[in-house]
Amino acid sequence: MKNFKYKLQRFMYGRYGVDAMYRLLLVITVLLMIANLIRPHIALWIASLFVFVLAIFRTFSKNIVRRRKENQVYLSIRHKLFGFIPKMTKRFKERKTHIYKKCPNCHATLRLKKIKGTHFVDCPKCFNEFSVRVK
Q1: Which of 66, 68, 76, 114 has a CA 20 to 30 Å removed from the CA of 95?
Q2: The dihedral of CA 17, 63, 77, 91: what is its sign?
Q3: Is the pTM of this model over 0.70?
């Protein structure tokens, strides 16, 4: 067993390996296979096979720089599409103790404690002072 692990490590040396895009490609492969089970069609089977081969190719590729760039593009697109979800979750959890206001000068979002009354706030980005009324 030790010999097998050593050979596998030696084989994978210099290869790209698994990343976020690989996981996405595997999910797409599984979804295409499930769709093929529900409504069999040769195009679905070929598409799932193509996506799976692409995922395996990326894993064993020695062109690490290119695979890293591909993954970075995927991660930036994913962040643009779904990056707001953690912010909104945090805001929802803190809805009873904090409020969020935008600076009228630089439009930075400020997190303020929910204390009733009118308060003067200094923006940490542009150092603009403005008043905020909390109900």
Answers
A1: 76
A2: positive
A3: no
